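User: We ran a pulldown and think these components assemble together. Before we commit to crystallization trials, I'd like a predicted model of the whole complex to look at. Sequences follow.
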Amino acid sequence: MLKIDNVTISYKKVPAVLDFSLDMKPGQIISLVGESGSGKTTVIRAVLGLLAGGGAITKGDILFDGESLLSKTPEQWRSLRGSDISMIFQDSGAMMNPTRKIGSVFTEYLQTHEKISRKDAWAKGEEMLRKMRLPSPDNVMGSYPFQLSGGMRQRVGIAMAMTYQPRLLLADEPTSALDVTTQAQIVRQMMELRDTYGTGIIVVTHNLGVAAYMSDYIVVMKNGHIEDQGDRDHILHHSENEYTRTLLSAVPSMEREQGGEKDV
Amino acid sequence: MCENNEVILEARHVTKRFPASGGRTLVANHDINLKFQKGKTLGLVGESGCGKSTFMRFLVSLDTPSEGEILYRGRDITKLRGEELRQSRQHIQMVFQDPTSSFNPKMRIRDIVCEPLLNFGRITKKEKDAACRRLLEMVELPGDFADRYPHNMSGGQRQRVAIARALALEPEILILDEATSALDVSVQKTIIELIVKLQREKNITIGFICHDISLIQSCADQVAVMYLGNVVEVLPAKDLAKNAKHPYTKALIGSIFDISMDFSKPIESIEGEAPSPLDVPAGCPFRGRCPKATTRCAAEQPKLRTVEAGHEVACHLLDEEGKNKTGASALTGRI
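Assistant: Here's a predicted model for the assembly, 599 residues in total across the polymer chains.
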């Protein structure tokens, strides 16, 4: 479905991602993991054509259903975003206008994608919020982003992104700003999206536990290139790569004995 | 393992109320009793807004509680004023989450690290170079970093400088407020190793605030779990995985994504989110999300009870022996 072919992305001529390739099938969940500055966010922003501040793809191509995304006109891009490919950000509250209510933002979003009356759009929005199991959707529609908790804002973001049942969902650290119990709820909900709608998901995360739990395939990035990749079992148990192992050993674990860091 | 240890810092019945809009009151801490033992680490874990940072700020005298006292070696530090308060600050120091915002960006590392020493007249200006070098080497940084500015360093290096500054006065107690949360995992590991090493060398008592319960269990001796301003469970860190009794502690542990977990099982998680601390429900603060809540939970707030040595739980569902009254297997089976 999505093929990233040997892509190099540079910010103002300084390469941030080097020779990145990825082949994704429909309904697959892929995680990009790595430490800060490894270029994981840059990769998924490039897929959506949303590279920040002077970023450009200087080499390679990105194919969606066999068509190059890079040669698309701005209009074609616009029709693709939100309907075939959509994105969830780390804090969905930050992408919404703080002075407008959720309902107003949501209806505007729906009206740019389809010819629909304001009233119908409102109802559709509410329906989506209900599907994402937000408590009292009418209340949420009438709230400002700051009135909602982080978990609720994230659910609103997922509801918006999933309205048109995209085939590809890009999630940039979707649970990093959340508390652990909320994180577990959101992760579960994202995995249900795949089961219900067959959505393929690329998750960018620094949490190896989340990556391992969610994904079929894990890509480990370091300094802009792919350091290691493979399915979960390979990465967690059979990887020969030194960096992957260092990363894994640095993750604090409940199961492991305390001995590693401190003798009892 | 800790019965005979000396308690050097103790919080007694600490309550903090903040005035909120509309004449309401926000209870950030409700009747907190905790003991810090010499040379040990007390971990404080909980979700955002549970009052863990508010509590730690009392320990370093950045704020005072509405009620209750904090005894450092038998003296209530919340009542200290003026020069006495200033002098007492030497004993309890703090490392913050984000060193970029706790450092003055226009000061060189040498001035940052040596400022506390100069403030308390421990060194003269001439001795700054040597003192700074010694402190930087203690946190495993090259001495040449003295001439740098905070923005010339990585996050992990800055956090080392923050530790060096906090330890410059050789305090007895070090408070770490999410000190590793902004760092990458591999850097986090090296910082934790450094802290543990320094703790052993200098016999420092540490109060460690963190939202990551698996990190807490790997580096603390005793863990206190907080929920909505209340301490709901206190237990030895080594027992955390096997012996946690409070449903909230279990839920916290259950919702961790662990790289060594069983991936075929669905992740356990409690539904809903913590209510706003402005309207804490009457009775047990956790009852709204507790799968086992009874009418008793709504009527009266459970008190912390000792269930075994070093292990206290505040939950009606447990009787004195620490066994579940209703369906022990059902609850433990979830985790």
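The first strand of chain A starts at residue 2 and ends at 11. That may be worth checking against your pulldown data before setting up trials.

User: Thanks, that helps.
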